[in-house]
Design brief:
By secondary structure, this protein is α+β, with helices and mostly antiparallel strands. Among the domains are: about 120 residues; about 160 residues, no CATH class; about 140 residues, no CATH class. It is about 45% helix and about 15% strand. The strands form six sheets. Strands 2-8-5-4-3-9 form a six-stranded mixed beta sheet, with no helix packed on it. A three-stranded mixed beta sheet has the order 1-7-6, with no helix packed on it. A hairpin with a 2-residue loop joins strand 6 and strand 7. The radius of gyration is 46 Å and the shape is extended. About 10% of the residues have low confidence.
């Protein structure tokens, strides 16, 4: 343990000076040629230190030249260097830290640690104002030489026109700008007078006397009351309940809420903040966020002031998101126009679960960014379908609160009437599309559900057929006739068990209104179901696909999957309607056929930051074409499997080493092409 004492004798008087690394010709302890001055308000210090001109490291000729440039040939009281030699250096201070309350000077003596708080930390840097004086002297000499040729009479004959201006009274704003300007602050700092100090060396008796103030004057514990505190008082000193700390706390992001702070607000403000951040919320979720003690009647009364009912869910009102006198961050459109456009989107979702973005943009005449913001507030984009409302229809709320639903319906009728006048809505915009009841969920059957249903049907049919076979077998044994039944004539119907085989989904065709996995079924019976073809067409399709792949790679030799798919689509466009290749070719079938035709996939190490798509990164090459350049191409493909960018001379050297012959430029060009 070490006893700690707080010394207060030098409180608000002790400064820490940080000196630069001193040159060998300068000593900080030389007091005979050193002066100091300070500006207390600015905490600015200037020290003038002596330079040892007799030191062997001192360049005397350079010192004389600097003194001559600064003072000239004449020597008087205003001279910077009276000895005609640069024999001193000036150091100016700057504050190292604005807040030094955390720092103290410590002295350790006889097992005791004495602390004195610092009032300032100043860094001293060399001042080069003498160079400014040298430049001023040089300009004065040049001006004197130029003015020597003109006579005094000519100077008297020169007449200059003087313009008189009267300054206008300064306004308060102009005065504040002038006071805060850099020029004014520099002038204020220059007006403060220097206070000259006397420097005492390290071994001076006055320094020894002042150094004793670094120790606490009384060692009695009664005099150090700052260090005698109870644990609770000490904790309060470490963490005082300051109002400034509350103001210094950073502001939380606008989309982040503290539930503890939120519940201290009135109920109406809580609901408004929640809806403004969430935008769409079921009533049950809102009640769970407000806490168990909230009254549902009061919540319903408040929610209707900041939100509208859409498909049984509450959507925040447009004027809450876009207050008056605001504008769009994208287009600068005023809030009134934005509210009308967003109300149109909300009204469309009261008519249907789906909204088309193009229709909204056409009616509202707003920019695409604003329309996208409206839709993202309350819906989710679906590929090739449009924007679907974010939440399912809340049937429970509609059944429990029919009066609220009726009131909201009347409000929507009023909004619809306003929208008709503003946007001149056509009949097609007003009539909702035919859709199922809100309570009915859309009948969508996933692929996994189809597989499970097919497997269940297979097991059911297999059991029935097995029973029939056992029954027929028993009849055969009981039959006394000599004629034997041919067992091979009894054929058991095989149902698909594997996920890869076609399955009977006729019982479930009505679920999707003629849709097979979301796609419209065609009238052609040879079209594939779930990507599979009838058995008789598979071989013919494979032959056609193989012919296309072979002919394509014999022309191109190297293709990415993206380019191959593009060429295949062009090939399909040239075929007559009803061709077998229209039955459906997946990417996997196309890639498998490429590998079956003697091609190989080249794993080119593209850089990780490439912007290419996955299909553009898959590279396939014809490995053997049957010509004289097969070996050269294979060597070249091996090179590119190790690096995606190779110099030409490296390729030519590698081809020469692997093939054992020197290829000329034309042959290398042909292989590279």
């Amino acid at each position: 343990q070490i006893d700690v004492f707080l010394a207060r004798s030098l409180l608000e008087k002790l400064y820490l000076f940080q000196y630069p690394i001193r040159p060998a010709s300068m000593t900080y302890d030389d007091v005979t040629h050193l002066s100091a001055k300070i500006k207390p308000k600015q905490q600015k210090v200037e020290l003038e230190m002596a330079i040892d001109t007799l030191n062997p490291n001192y360049c005397r000729s350079k010192g004389e030249q600097i003194a001559l440039n600064v003072d000239g040939t004449c020597t008087d009281e205003t001279s910077t260097y009276s000895s005609k030699l640069m024999d001193k250096q000036t150091f100016c201070s700057s504050q190292a830290a604005s807040n030094v309350s955390r720092y103290a000077a410590a002295v350790y003596k006889k097992g005791e640690l004495h602390l004195t708080p610092l009032h300032g930390i100043l860094q001293l840097r060399p001042s080069f104002t003498y160079l400014d004086k040298a430049d001023a002297k040089h300009r004065e000499r040049e001006a004197a030489n130029e003015g020597g040729d003109s006579s005094q009479d000519e100077a008297e004959d020169d007449v200059k026109q003087i313009t008189v201006r009267f300054s206008r009274p300064e306004t308060e704003q102009a005065r504040q700008r002038r006071v805060q300007s850099y020029e004014f602050l520099q002038k204020r700092q220059a007006e403060e007078h220097w206070v000259h100090l006397h420097y005492y060396g390290l071994k001076d008796s006055r320094s020894e006397h002042e150094r004793q103030y670094l120790f606490s004057q009384g060692h009695g514990l009664a005099e150090n009351t700052e260090l005698i505190k109870s644990p609770s008082e000490y904790l309060m000193m470490l963490m005082p309940p300051s109002v400034e700390e509350e103001n210094d706390k950073p502001m939380a992001p606008s989309n982040v809420l503290s539930m503890a702070q939120l519940r201290t607000l009135p109920l109406a403000d809580q609901i408004k903040i929640l809806m403004k951040n969430v935008k769409v919320m079921p009533f049950a979720n809102l009640m769970s966020l407000l806490g168990s003690g909230s009254d549902s009647t009061a919540v319903l009364r408040c929610i209707q002031q900041v939100a509208m009912l859409v498909q049984g869910n509450w959507v925040v009102k447009s004027d809450v998101l876009y207050p008056k006198d605001t504008s769009s961050p994208h287009s600068g459109v005023p809030a009134e126009v934005l509210c009308r456009g967003r109300d149109f989107v909300m009204w469309k979702f009261t008519q249907d679960r789906w909204v088309v973005r193009k229709e909204v943009a056409t009616v509202t005449k707003l920019c695409p960014e604003d329309v996208k913001d409206f839709l993202e507030h309350m819906s989710v984009a679906r590929i090739n379908k449009g924007w679907e409302f974010m939440l399912p229809y809340d049937e429970d709320f509609v059944k429990k609160h029919p009066d609220i639903v009726q009131r909201q319906h009347m409000l929507w009728m009023g909004i619809q009437a306003k929208l008709e006048k503003v946007y001149n809505l056509l009949k097609e915009h007003l009539t909702p599309k035919k859709q199922e009841a809100h309570s009915a969920r859309p009948l969508l059957v996933s692929g996994e559900q189809r597989v499970n249903m097919a497997k269940a049907k297979v097991k059911q049919n297999y059991g029935q057929l097995e029973k029939e076979f056992q029954k027929q077998k028993a009849e055969m044994k009981s039959n006394d006739t000599s004629g034997k039944m041919d067992v091979s004539s009894i054929r058991i119907k095989e149902e698909p068990v594997s996920d890869e085989e076609p399955m009977d989904t006729s019982a479930y065709e009505g679920l999707n209104n003629g849709l097979v996995n979301g796609l419209h079924a065609e009238d052609n019976p040879t079209d594939p179901l779930n990507g599979h073809l009838p058995g008789g067409c598979i071989d013919w399709v494979a032959q056609e696909l193989k012919a296309f792949v072979s002919s394509t790679f014999k022309k191109q030799f190297v293709l990415t999957l993206s380019e191959l798919k593009r060429l295949f689509n062009l090939h399909l466009a040239s075929l007559p309607p009803g061709h077998t290749l229209f039955s459906g070719i997946s990417d996997k079938m196309l890639q498998d056929m490429v590998l079956d035709t003697g091609c190989k996939q080249i794993l080119v190490p593209f850089p990780p930051q490439t912007a290419a798509s996955p299909d553009e990164l898959k590279v396939y090459a014809l490995w053997e074409a049957g010509d004289t350049y097969d070996q050269h191409r294979q060597v070249l493909l091996e090179i590119f499997s190790k690096n995606y960018r190779v110099r030409r001379n490296v390729i030519q050297n590698q081809l020469s080493q692997e093939c054992g012959e020197d290829l000329n430029k034309q042959e290398v060009d042909r292989v590279l092409k």
